[in-house]
Amino acid sequence: MMDTITNFSPLSSLSPECSRRRFLGVSGVLVLGASLPVQRALGQTAAPTTFAPNLWLAIDGDGTVRATVHRSEMGQGIRTALTQVIADELDADWSRVEVVQAQGDVKYGDQNTDGSRSITQNYDRLRAAGATARLMLRQAAAKHWGVAVDTVRAGNHEVVHAASGRRLGYGELASQAAMLPVPENAPLKKETEHRYIGKPVTHVDAGDIARGKGTFGADFSLPNMATAVVVRCPWLGGGVKSIANKPTDEPGLVAIETLDAAPSAGPVFAPLGGVGVVAEDTWTAMRVAQGLNIEWTGSPNQTFDSNELRHALRDAVAKPGTPVPGSEKGDVDAVFAAGGTELSATYETPFLSHAPMEPPVAVADVTEERCVVHAPLQDPQSARPMIAAQAGLTPDKVEVTPTLLGGAFGRKSKPDFALEAVELSKRVKRPVRVQWLREDDIRHDYLHASSAQHHRAVIDDEGKPTAWLQRSAFPSITTVFAAQAVQPAPWELEMGFSNLPYTVANQRMESAGIRPGARVGWLRSVCNIFHAFSANVFADEMASAVGRDPIEHRLSLIPASGKLKQPGQPAPPGHELDFARLRHVIERVRKLSDWDSPRPEGVGLGFAVHHSFRSYVATVLEASMANGRPRVSNAYVVLDCGTYVNPDTCVAQMEGAVVFGLSLSLYGDIALKEGAVVQSNFHDYPMLRIAEAPATKVELVPAQGRLPAGVGEPGVPPVAPALSNALFAATGTRHRTLPIRA
User: Fold this and answer.
1) How does pLDDT run across 703-726, given as a tens digit for each residue?
2) 121 located within any domain
3) Is residue 150 included in any domain, yes or no?
4) Which of 364, 490, 535, 705 is the most buried (most CB within 10 A)?
5) How far apart are CA 555 and CA 510, in angstroms?
6) Residues with pLDDT less than 70, the chain
């Protein structure tokens, strides 16, 4: 049955010694992947026992299909979805498919499990890999039987000659298929022929995770492994000046190592430095680390204050900024000068922490000959050369294998924690696991940038803007990569700011940047969080000013058809913002939420819509105030992500996005004083609790042959503005600053 999976190979079943090279050396296997046949790479001259025109699948002689997944699993179901794509075009028996986790290697192409791009980038080539294998199995069977290939068909793990009733299993054909030339442009299935694509399939790791058998970062161990906890300077750029009470005879203590501080502006994902306490067990490492009395060196960031930054951001949007090239239409200043009904508002959001369920952790084993790393990394391939440099080795002597990720949200695409493990293993000459504590995770994160947006408009009697000025200010992620970087990058502005979908005759967009005194990075949906918040709440304010229904007002601002011509780099063909699709999710969420039916007194409905990561999401929240706190009782979400692979995963991602979005809307606030993060754990940086989570209904728009788009992130941006708008409808109080506390 498609909803029952019992024989997938979990990460926990893979030994540390099971390398990709050993896997490819197994005999009697049909392998399909990138380009070079394995037998040629291994120097074989006899009849091949393996077949490897590409990297993505293998078939054993017993018929077992091994699907190689080159992206990282963090609960979003990507190991399942990518396997579904391969298995569908292969026409495999799902119960006979196993998953192999790929190591970080350039041969796989982009391995960055970030930006909601795994299906978008890999859908076509994985379909092609499966379809090519299916065609070659048909060709092998046809040759074996001496019949034309078009008289045989493949289905459910076997090839059948209908006229004679003969059939051969995939395993029986593997060695013969390995002798054939690799065809180009193998025919793909029609959408109506899909068996797994677009169908619900239980995640391949679900059983092991539910039983506590999944291998996350902290679960992986090696013989003779030590555990390390690193004490880092509270402010960015500070290093160790002295250690007043360095112990020398603590039982179980292996070493206390001083790690050099990273420069104030990077470089990139370098470790922060500090004091590494290496011990035989985690408790000893934690206890010794917490008892150290360390004096730190100063840095320019030692006086950084997030409240002062918020004032600076507010001041930045109160004056002209840098115009977004190509965004200006008409004459905004002339319309403002002419007078009329004018609205203006400033919106603010704070720093945010990723706070994944599993704090960063990494295991490294460095010797003179090689370096092996097992860690919950979102991008093992990009981490590999950094790890090589840290280990003092060439990349070909480095193996990086991602474990399961216990949440990530963008944090674990930065491998600084893995580099710490490499450095300490190199020094103590044994395997080392670096374990971050929750306090480390929150205090030394790559924070999501704080921001300010200012909107000013002149509106007509229907609330439509005749002129609209938009300003956005925030610390750019590019400040992590370059000491001179200040201004927001075009790709950051294209996250809900420069690509705003509303039709306005007179419009201008301006931006401003400022260097922060902390590391900033991407967090789930990135700049869409604050851009969607301000644009959706301001649109609601326009509707309220003239007493118009918020959804009707929003539809009046969006053309009935056509594609958005956004400034800057155009969207890829087939992924342009389609006005009709945007309108469709709005109309569907109106029906799903029963928007037009009255709610009890004190209960309000709030609406928001956003296009991000090539997907369209419309959200309605039903909210009220209870005991002085916002309370969301129901959430309604409509997602149009084009072609989707696993509908259950899509629904789960939208449900999770509601919880994630409400957490940041109600609780997300990281403050820094004297360069140090004030918060430390979930008592002062809380998440939404289960009793606070709303009942959530999700609808998926049918694929209709459209290109696949992102799913993991697009559900987050509409949540905060929908909540603000719902609370206004319930109480008459407008919330323009996150988090919403009362």
Assistant:
1) 989 999 999 999 999 999 999 999
2) yes
3) yes
4) 364
5) 25
6) 1-53, 263-267
